[in-house]
């Protein structure tokens, strides 16, 4: 009787996740594209917030909404940047960080579209709102591009921080 598996090859894929449980400061993250995007987002959030805050009309609902979007973006992105710089993300690699960041960046892109558009609508009444709108649109682009990068990373199965190595081995049965 012939072996039914004779002549068939088997492919074995092994996935290894390499992370370090140590919390350590690593300033090299800020020189990566995601690190530079986070730094730019923090700066744009802060500049937009300052522009609206110094305005005479900052207590208007348009200014309040813009400042709410800017400050939540500032703090969330700032905390994430600190987590990446100190490898907290790597320590807790089981949390789906890329999905969390993707959702946040996508939502903040829409929030900034609305906030900057509302501020731009008052640019003729107050120049500070025009400047805030400019920084808001710039932040919208930064968050939108970051959401695009995070979407691609989630789709390809990348880790937020750490390494995932995949090895594929083809095994052929031995002849009798």
TrEMBL record:
Spans traversing the lipid bilayer: 39-59, 65-86, 98-122, 128-145
A single GO cellular-component term on record: membrane
Pfam families for the chain: MARVEL (PF01284)
Keyword Hydrolase attached: no
Keywords for this protein: Membrane, Transmembrane, Transmembrane helix
Record's bilayer topology term: Multi-pass membrane protein
Positions of the MARVEL domain: 29-155
Keyword Membrane included in the entry's annotation: yes
Domain of life where this protein originates: Eukaryota
Subcellular locations according to the entry: Membrane
This protein's name: CKLF-like MARVEL transmembrane domain-containing protein 4
Organism: Frankliniella fusca
